[in-house]
Amino acid sequence: MSVDLEKLKDIAEVEFEDIVEEAVITDLNELRIMLTDGSFIDVWFSLKLVGKYSYHWERKALDGLIYRHDNIPHKKWEHIKTFPKHFHDRDESTAVESHIDNNEEKALREFLSFSRKVLTGSPPSRQ
Hints:
This protein is α+β, with helices and mostly antiparallel strands and 127 residues long. It is built from 3 helices and 7 strands, in the order αββββαβββα. A 7-stranded antiparallel beta sheet has the order 1-2-3-4-5-6-7.
């Protein structure tokens, strides 16, 4: 099953136009979403490992933070209840449970809603 990046691009640009400058398909398996604050989100789906993904919000240049949901089975995170799914909360060395949806369209909406809350100053609930 392949991911419909055009559909994800449309979701980002239309449903989240208040925080998204543009979304660009950068590769067969990656979408980059440029946000209004100058940060970006990379959405990546593995071509080799079926079902593996990463939703990565890069903010290091702005405030030193990153937020990322992924399901790569790093041994370091085996203790997390949702393993291999985990959420890097503000930095690479911190991971907590990830409850992001397994459906990529729903997951993108959840992650962009989380991003909107951070950008508008509303306290986001952990994903």
